[in-house]
Amino acid sequence: MFERSDETLVKQALNGKKSAWITLVKRYEKHLFNYTLRMVSNREDAMDLMQDVFVAVFRNLSSFRGDSPFKGWLFKIAHYRCIEFYRRKKPMQSLDDTPEQEEVDDSTCPEFNFSSGQQAQDIQKALQHLPFNQKIVVELKFFQHATFEDISYQLGISINTAKSRLYSALDKLKDHLELDYV
Length: 182
Prior knowledge:
CATH architecture of the largest domain: Orthogonal Bundle
Protein name: Sigma-70 family RNA polymerase sigma factor
Domain RNA polymerase sigma-70 region: 24-90
Order of helices and strands: HHHHHHHHH
Domain RNA polymerase sigma factor 70 region 4 type: 121-173
Keywords: Sigma factor, Transcription, Transcription regulation
CATH class of the largest domain: Mainly Alpha
Number of domains: 2
Number of helices: 9
Family: Belongs to the sigma-70 factor family. ECF subfamily.
Protein backbone atom coordinates (compact mmCIF):
# COMPACT_ATOMS: atom_id res chain seq x y z
CA MET A 1 0.00 0.00 0.00
CA PHE A 2 1.11 3.55 -0.69
CA GLU A 3 2.41 5.32 2.43
CA ARG A 4 1.95 9.07 2.59
CA SER A 5 4.97 11.16 3.52
CA ASP A 6 5.13 12.96 6.85
CA GLU A 7 5.05 16.30 5.07
CA THR A 8 1.85 15.36 3.22
CA LEU A 9 0.27 14.22 6.46
CA VAL A 10 1.27 17.46 8.18
CA LYS A 11 -0.33 19.52 5.40
CA GLN A 12 -3.49 17.43 5.56
CA ALA A 13 -3.61 17.69 9.36
CA LEU A 14 -3.23 21.45 9.13
CA ASN A 15 -6.18 21.48 6.74
CA GLY A 16 -8.30 19.75 9.39
CA LYS A 17 -8.02 16.13 8.28
CA LYS A 18 -8.15 14.24 11.58
CA SER A 19 -7.09 10.91 10.04
CA ALA A 20 -3.81 12.47 8.86
CA TRP A 21 -2.95 13.52 12.43
CA ILE A 22 -3.89 10.07 13.75
CA THR A 23 -1.64 8.47 11.14
CA LEU A 24 1.29 10.64 12.27
CA VAL A 25 0.68 9.75 15.91
CA LYS A 26 0.44 6.03 15.16
CA ARG A 27 3.57 6.20 13.01
CA TYR A 28 5.71 7.59 15.84
CA GLU A 29 4.02 6.67 19.13
CA LYS A 30 5.99 3.47 19.75
CA HIS A 31 9.34 5.08 18.90
CA LEU A 32 8.52 8.13 20.98
CA PHE A 33 7.36 6.05 23.94
CA ASN A 34 10.54 3.95 23.90
CA TYR A 35 12.62 7.10 23.61
CA THR A 36 10.96 8.75 26.59
CA LEU A 37 11.12 5.51 28.58
CA ARG A 38 14.87 5.24 28.00
CA MET A 39 15.26 8.86 29.06
CA VAL A 40 13.18 8.78 32.26
CA SER A 41 13.18 5.06 33.20
CA ASN A 42 9.58 5.08 34.40
CA ARG A 43 6.62 3.86 32.34
CA GLU A 44 4.07 6.35 33.74
CA ASP A 45 6.41 9.31 33.32
CA ALA A 46 7.24 8.15 29.80
CA MET A 47 3.54 7.96 28.90
CA ASP A 48 2.95 11.44 30.32
CA LEU A 49 5.93 12.82 28.42
CA MET A 50 4.82 11.17 25.20
CA GLN A 51 1.37 12.74 25.54
CA ASP A 52 2.91 16.14 26.32
CA VAL A 53 5.09 15.89 23.22
CA PHE A 54 2.17 15.02 20.94
CA VAL A 55 0.08 17.86 22.40
CA ALA A 56 2.98 20.29 21.87
CA VAL A 57 3.50 19.04 18.32
CA PHE A 58 -0.20 19.38 17.53
CA ARG A 59 -0.33 22.90 18.93
CA ASN A 60 2.78 23.93 16.99
CA LEU A 61 2.16 21.98 13.80
CA SER A 62 1.70 25.19 11.83
CA SER A 63 5.25 26.24 12.74
CA PHE A 64 6.75 23.11 11.13
CA ARG A 65 8.55 24.55 8.11
CA GLY A 66 9.82 21.34 6.59
CA ASP A 67 13.48 22.45 6.73
CA SER A 68 14.28 19.13 8.38
CA PRO A 69 12.37 15.85 8.49
CA PHE A 70 9.24 15.79 10.64
CA LYS A 71 10.74 12.99 12.75
CA GLY A 72 13.73 15.19 13.65
CA TRP A 73 11.41 18.05 14.60
CA LEU A 74 9.26 15.69 16.70
CA PHE A 75 12.26 14.30 18.58
CA LYS A 76 13.70 17.77 19.09
CA ILE A 77 10.49 18.68 20.90
CA ALA A 78 10.69 15.39 22.83
CA HIS A 79 14.27 16.22 23.82
CA TYR A 80 13.24 19.59 25.26
CA ARG A 81 10.32 18.00 27.11
CA CYS A 82 12.69 15.47 28.67
CA ILE A 83 14.98 18.29 29.80
CA GLU A 84 11.99 20.09 31.32
CA PHE A 85 11.02 16.84 33.07
CA TYR A 86 14.48 16.51 34.63
CA ARG A 87 14.53 20.15 35.67
CA ARG A 88 11.16 19.83 37.41
CA LYS A 89 12.01 16.53 39.05
CA LYS A 90 15.64 17.21 40.02
CA PRO A 91 15.03 19.24 43.21
CA MET A 92 12.54 16.65 44.49
CA GLN A 93 14.56 13.48 43.87
CA SER A 94 17.70 12.55 45.75
CA LEU A 95 20.40 10.46 44.13
CA ASP A 96 19.50 7.55 46.40
CA ASP A 97 15.95 7.51 45.03
CA THR A 98 16.90 6.46 41.51
CA PRO A 99 13.91 4.76 39.89
CA GLU A 100 14.00 1.09 38.98
CA GLN A 101 14.73 0.56 35.29
CA GLU A 102 11.52 -0.22 33.41
CA GLU A 103 11.54 -2.71 30.57
CA VAL A 104 11.69 -1.16 27.11
CA ASP A 105 9.82 -2.68 24.18
CA ASP A 106 12.81 -3.94 22.20
CA SER A 107 10.80 -4.75 19.07
CA THR A 108 11.66 -1.29 17.73
CA CYS A 109 15.30 -1.58 18.84
CA PRO A 110 17.05 -4.06 16.56
CA GLU A 111 20.29 -3.35 18.39
CA PHE A 112 19.00 -5.35 21.34
CA ASN A 113 17.56 -8.24 19.37
CA PHE A 114 21.00 -9.83 19.02
CA SER A 115 21.59 -10.05 22.73
CA SER A 116 20.04 -12.02 25.48
CA GLY A 117 17.48 -10.38 27.71
CA GLN A 118 20.07 -10.05 30.48
CA GLN A 119 22.55 -8.27 28.23
CA ALA A 120 19.85 -5.85 27.05
CA GLN A 121 18.90 -5.13 30.66
CA ASP A 122 22.56 -4.59 31.59
CA ILE A 123 22.95 -2.12 28.73
CA GLN A 124 19.78 -0.29 29.78
CA LYS A 125 21.03 -0.07 33.37
CA ALA A 126 24.42 1.18 32.21
CA LEU A 127 22.73 3.89 30.14
CA GLN A 128 21.03 5.17 33.28
CA HIS A 129 24.44 5.97 34.79
CA LEU A 130 25.28 8.42 32.00
CA PRO A 131 24.76 12.15 32.34
CA PHE A 132 21.66 13.28 30.45
CA ASN A 133 23.63 15.16 27.76
CA GLN A 134 25.56 11.96 26.92
CA LYS A 135 22.57 9.63 27.23
CA ILE A 136 20.61 11.71 24.73
CA VAL A 137 23.41 11.50 22.14
CA VAL A 138 23.65 7.70 22.57
CA GLU A 139 19.86 7.50 22.24
CA LEU A 140 19.81 9.53 19.04
CA LYS A 141 22.80 7.79 17.46
CA PHE A 142 22.05 4.16 18.24
CA PHE A 143 18.31 3.98 18.82
CA GLN A 144 17.05 6.68 16.45
CA HIS A 145 19.84 6.09 13.88
CA ALA A 146 20.50 9.82 13.59
CA THR A 147 23.56 11.18 11.86
CA PHE A 148 25.88 13.53 13.71
CA GLU A 149 24.39 16.35 11.62
CA ASP A 150 20.88 15.40 12.81
CA ILE A 151 22.07 15.17 16.42
CA SER A 152 23.73 18.55 16.10
CA TYR A 153 20.52 20.10 14.78
CA GLN A 154 18.20 18.44 17.30
CA LEU A 155 20.31 19.33 20.32
CA GLY A 156 21.54 22.71 19.12
CA ILE A 157 25.20 21.73 19.53
CA SER A 158 28.13 21.48 17.15
CA ILE A 159 28.89 18.24 15.34
CA ASN A 160 32.19 17.98 17.23
CA THR A 161 30.39 18.36 20.56
CA ALA A 162 27.99 15.58 19.55
CA LYS A 163 30.92 13.32 18.67
CA SER A 164 32.74 14.17 21.88
CA ARG A 165 29.69 13.39 24.01
CA LEU A 166 29.12 10.11 22.19
CA TYR A 167 32.69 8.91 22.59
CA SER A 168 32.78 9.95 26.22
CA ALA A 169 29.53 8.08 26.82
CA LEU A 170 30.84 4.99 25.07
CA ASP A 171 33.96 5.03 27.26
CA LYS A 172 31.78 5.22 30.38
CA LEU A 173 29.51 2.44 29.12
CA LYS A 174 32.52 0.28 28.34
CA ASP A 175 33.95 0.81 31.81
CA HIS A 176 30.61 0.12 33.47
CA LEU A 177 29.87 -3.00 31.41
CA GLU A 178 33.40 -4.39 31.82
CA LEU A 179 32.78 -4.53 35.56
CA ASP A 180 29.77 -6.77 34.91
CA TYR A 181 31.32 -9.02 32.27
CA VAL A 182 35.02 -9.28 33.06
